[in-house]
Amino acid sequence: xxxxxxxxxxxRLRQRLSKGLKVREPEAFAKxxxxxxxxxxxxxxxxRLYRAMVLNRATTPTGTYVAVTFTxxxxxxxxxVTIHLSRFPLRDWTWRAPAFAAIEGATEMLASLILIxxxxxxLGTGAAHFHDWPGMAVRTLGWRIATIxxxxxxxxxxxxxxxxxxxxxxxxxxSEGTVQAGVPGEQFVExxxxxxxx
Length: 198
Description:
Helix content is 77%, strand content 2%. With 198 residues, the protein is mostly helical.
């Protein structure tokens, strides 16, 4: 019974919060964000091209320049993960986050192969070559899977904590009236009278 009450209250909370925030997103973007493979492919291609563009344009990169540009890239990557994961319940995040990371990393490395063929893939102060690619692939996939998985765990913790705080503040899950609020055929006034008689 407690799980039923919690799920009902969670749904009411979601509906109430969604009424205050009106965001109309294009249907194409909603479809893209809902598809694991599509959003990971787009993210991987954009992330690799951004990295190549930033490193190829920097003639004498300073520490601040590199930090700022890579922070922007990391924010983009984690924002895309968040946009995708926000469309699904928390229990699905356990497999969606690592799968997103693996597909995104693999796509990045395929884009890297194309950039290497065009001599546009930077590695250190020079251009990367095909013999450098396996090491780059292992590092990139490892970092993506570790980073996105840890981020998804932290994000899930924040989501659970916010839900807990909001539900606790409303006292919905712990009030006695919640159990009787859903009796079919009972009017709101009758429920109010009965609760006042107690």
